[in-house]
Amino acid sequence: MSARLRTVAAVNRAIIACERCARLRTYCAEIATAKRRAYRDEVYWGKPVPGFGDPDARLLVVGLAPGAHGANRTGRMFTGDSSGDWLYDALHANGFANQPTSISRDDGLELTDCYITAAGRCAPPDNKPLPKELEHCREYLDADLRLLTRLRVILTLGRIGHEAFLRSSGLWDRMSPRERPVFAHGAETTLPDGRVLLSSFHPSRQNTQTGKLTRAMWLSVFARARVILAA
Q: What is the DSSP letter of 123?
């Protein structure tokens, strides 16, 4: 275990300072300078985005990566874009968040019994991180899984988040391809250690605006997480 990653706070400090992926750091800096017209008066975060939530959480949400004008702008996971609107609304509806919206790091949002992390910590061009970039980020997800000791349910959003969790948990290497939990919306697997893995389509515009992911489908996954935690 790296001496600099012994606490959740230390992990998040290391993430913010990370400079491993030149392509991603260049892209995030360019976006933070060019900005989107609607946010031209804002100061973009522009750095790798740390995890967010309750360090005693029993629910872990694993996303893909920050959005270019969402978390790369605000500096908090799933904050300031439509994916965050979907996520925090569902968390609030199921008692994991104190409010249903998230627009900035200082908007008063607090999570209870939930922590949010991601496969990648920098916004990637076209929302497509390279395999080597995900590998550079892997130690941070490894550390989250090691330090969040009360986890009972892991919810992966999208295939990349799903596979990142399997790799960081060690299940990818310990299981054959036929044994590994499959990614599918609403899929549920009880892992060898007793924790439960749920998966969902990512709440990206590509999925929500095409009807691939409906509000009812989305909310049902969080309701299921709540049922599991209440058992």
A: P
